Amino acid sequence: MSTVLELLTLQGLDDEAAALRAALSDVERRIAGDEELMNARRAFAEADDRVNEVRRRQRRLEDEIETLSDKIAREEKRLYDGSVKNPKELSSLQHEVESLKAHRSPFEDELIGVLDEFEREERARKEAARTMAQLEALREAHLVDLRREGRRLNDAILKSDTRREIQKAKIPPRPLAAYEDLRRRKGGMAIAKISAGSCLGCRVSVPDAIRRRALSSNELAQCPNCERILSLG
Ligand SMILES: [Zn+2]
């Protein structure tokens, strides 16, 4: 087989190896982290924070209301147990109880709103927890597949590397070095076919003298425009 055909075979193997390595790095990226699951975990943590914040406000209001209710109960007890007999003192006590109740009333209204809010946030947290659990279960199952796929790709890469080494050994050092240099510089496409007199790497017409050189099996012809190794096959 001519050197250029051996190089073409090598290019095919190099393309295959590059595709396998890209697939493996994609699998590794997916094993390392699942963006959807991370978002769901963050959403749950935020929902949890909101529930705790509403819970704190609820406790503060309940404490406030309890303190006032205790005070009201104490004053009402004095009002009705006959321990205070002076009408002026009784009327002032009555006034005190009313004022305490008036003070307590907005806290009670606020508490009703906070309890509604708590219920809403609690529902949202449950929903977020459910989503997170579903994605976690999905990921568990998915991880098994991803690890299996990672092992398969690693095996395929090992085999492909062996085939490439065998193929490389068939090619003389200078064309091999030229190929590897071009492959690095030309985005993986070191060899271009000639079709209808043009280089398929850059679409520029190839002079006859160079086309003739491409026909000979012991010499490499390169495109004068893009430098790629030209193949007639
Ligand atoms: Zn070219």
CATH topology tier name of the largest domain = Helix Hairpins
State the domain count. 2
Shape: rod-shaped
Give the biggest sheet: 3 strands, mixed
Mean pLDDT: 93
Q: Count every beta strand, where a strand is a DSSP E run of 2 or more residues.
A: 3
The helix/strand order is: HHHHEEHE
Percent of residues in helical segments? over 70%
Radius of gyration: 40 Å
Spatial strand order of the main sheet: 2-1-3
Bound chemical compounds: zinc ion
By secondary-structure content and strand pairing, the structural class works out as mainly alpha
Task: Provide an overview of this structure.
The protein is mostly helical. The chain has two domains: 33-168, Helix Hairpins; 173-231, no CATH class. It is built from five helices and three strands. The protein has helices at 3-32, 35-80, 87-168, 173-185, 208-215; strands at residues 191-195, 198-199, 229-231. α1 runs antiparallel to α3 (87-168). The longest helix has 82 residues, at 87-168. It binds zinc ion (ZN). Zinc ion (ZN) binds at residues 192, 199, 201-202, 204, 223, 225-226, 228.
